[in-house]
Request: fold
Amino acid sequence: MSVKFKVALSVILFAVIFPATALTSYGASRDTSWPIITVNGAQVDSLWETRSGGFDYLTPATDLSRSTGAEYSFFPGTGGILIKKGNHLLELFIDRKAAIINGVKTTLGQSPLSVDGVIYVPLHTVASGLGYSVSYDEKEKSFNLSSLPGPSLERQPPVKTINELLPRGSVFLETTESKKGDLDGDGKDEYSGLYRKNDGTYGVIIYSQENDGFKQLWQKEEEFPPSLMELADLNDGGGSELLVGWNLGTPIGSYLEIYSFKGGHPDLIFSGMYHRFDQGDFDADGKNEFALWQRDYGDTYSTSVFKWNGKMFAPVECLPGYYQKVVKYYQGPSQNRSAQYYLSMAHLRSGEFDMALEAAAEGLNLPQGHPSNADFHRLKGLALVGLERYSEARESLEFSLQGSPGPVWTEARFALSRCYVATGETARGRMEIIRALNEGNHWQGYQRALETIKAEMASKK
Reply:
């Protein structure tokens, strides 16, 4: 799937041609007769159970995505469901059999459903779409998902010079140097390089240097010029990953792809947009993180730090060691509403809730524009929850969520759930946390929300 196609999807996802489907009720129900699911031999730690849907079993999208390392988002305003893992991209819709599976329009045998606030998707469709085989163990009453191996590194016949590795008429880019690292975990270094073809397109190549010359292992070509190439251990896998960025132009920025080659199979494990990229051990725990800065308005950027959680790269909720750098970027007198918003956000991600509250209040006093007042009230609410001023936070968060159709507000839902619980409305708090978890798994605070609901369920056993 090309970069252009994937970026186009990220821009037009779930246009308003699909009608909204409301969540009906909230709560997790259990029936021990329902089957369990395993992924590569490990049992899925499900919050809700898989159930029969008539034409296929229905399983909670949030549980299946978490266990497979897929990014998952639900858009209440359109009923759209997006599940993404590497090059696999699934677009489904509540109560609709029309779907797009890896770029192909498909008619499903079983429609996704919303039941008791939980989003259910057809098990076989989603599992196979994400690159898994599915088998059923009658004795254990379990569905067993196994990863289908991708293509192996090619290991072409050796050539005497590096330039012979490239397609005819191609040249290595003079402005870049080859990088080396153990990509496939065999204890030997591999090399990566960038090149330009004579038709004006570009490519990245992985190769090895051996006694009998050089061997091409893998290559990928794009129509966009590269803006980044690094080898770094980002998923704590005892080896390096390949990071390559493709420059789509100044207004849009660059598209980052991170590949793992562990076991000799290329695997796209992350992709995302950026205008500025940072990588390093930001929290001094001996493991690398990376930060993506994506331009919003003028010289302001939406900044997110990502860390490997064992299954996927997830955005970090609080990281003072890096976000203080973001604070310094925005500090100083400013009448820029966008800069004030991202200053407040940086304080929030640094755990400086009082300063985040002050910056958000100052932003609200600026002439109305971008970001909206609702955006600033969201930050105010998050900061007030951090300060445990729950009654005040509830007012700001409820205002920020009015009419909001999508998962961009998911962190605010989780914060609102904490307000309801703290002010004695436990059932309403439970409603919001279930709603937050079922709106996606790729937002700051998701892990804490997950642990919160797990603890509640455990206390009721």
Observations:
- The chain has eleven helices and 26 strands.
